[in-house]
Design a protein that fits this description.
The protein contains 8 helices and 7 strands; from the N terminus they run αβαβαββαβααβααβ. It is an alpha/beta fold. A 7-stranded mixed sheet has the order 3-2-1-4-5-7-6, sandwiched between helices. The structure holds S-adenosylmethionine.
Length: about 250
């Protein structure tokens, strides 16, 4: 009997359009990185595109999820990039894998331990002096109401995120200047969130009597309710950060 599927319709594990991904890859590869370190890489789609655009670069992706890492390795093989990338199943907290010329941390600052200022301090430690960091980080587009928070993740609180200026201030405090500040559009969210659940919804429709159906339905319903509560409220910022040189 088939088990509930993993999401196959996601290109990236977050709200990121092809147009924005292309622009990010052009800008980040344009800085000529020789090494790329991807913190909480998942299946590493952005790293693989960067390695394709920067043919002399090598990459290391760190994540805890073996299935996502296996997808990354498989895609690397398919694209002839396997000899230039390692997908390692290990925690990024306190990692000794840096420094790298380009450090990606997209939707994964929690992997660096602690709050955002701690993560930014770690990113500064992990990037070379002339390198770049791409930080993809959640922020509130407006203050969520109590009723919205109650429908988000368990224990959701207005303190869980900053507003957008509240992301820049700790980045500059950590020794960066924001080369580029951009945020995911509602269209990008509306491509990402349904794609996250689509395979599960089809499976649920086709397997109503499956022993895992009830648990899977509850999980899908909770996720959708949360998404509909944070739709237009939770943003995702992509900050391209440049380390400030020592005087
Ligand atoms: C929202 S996903 C983002 C994945 C990827 N960066 C992307 O944008 O497609 C967050 C990832 O962080 C990973 N993660 C969480 N804690 C981690 C840790 N301590 N060390 C490494 N990865 C971690 C999760 O397994 C998950 O794949």
């Amino acid at each position: 009997m088939t088990t509930p599927p993993r999401p196959t319709r996601l290109t990236f594990h977050g709200p990121l359009s092809e147009t924005r991904a292309d622009a990010l890859v052009r800008r980040l590869a344009g800085n000529g990185p020789a090494t790329v370190l991807d913190i909480g890489c998942g299946w590493g789609e952005l790293t693989l595109r960067l390695l394709a655009a920067a043919p002399r670069a090598t990459g290391t992706g760190l994540d805890l999820n073996p299935d996502d890492l296996a997808r990354g390795r498989h895609t690397a093989e398919e694209r002839g990039l396997a000899h230039r990338v390692r997908f390692l199943q290990e925690s990024a907290t306190g990692t000794t894998r840096g420094p790298a010329d380009l450090v990606l941390c997209v939707g994964a600052s929690q992997a660096l331990g602690g709050e955002l200022p701690t993560a930014l301090g770690e990113l500064r430690r992990l990037v070379t002096d002339r390198g770049r960091v791409l930080l993809g980080e959640g922020f509130w587009q407006r203050t969520p109401t109590g009723s919205e928070l109650a429908r988000m993740w368990p224990g959701a609180s207005a303190d869980d995120h900053q507003d957008l200026p509240g992301l820049i201030a700790p980045a500059t405090d950590a020794g960066f200047r924001p080369e580029w500040t951009e945020t995911a559009s509602l269209d990008e969210w509306e491509e990402f969130e349904p794609a996250y659940l689509a395979d599960t919804e089809v499976w649920l429709a086709e397997h109503p009597g499956h022993p895992m159906a009830e648990e899977t339905r509850q999980r899908a319903d909770r996720h959708r309710a949360a998404w509909l509560a944070y739709r237009g409220v939770l943003g995702l910022a992509y900050l391209t950060l440049v380390p400030v040189r020592a005087v």
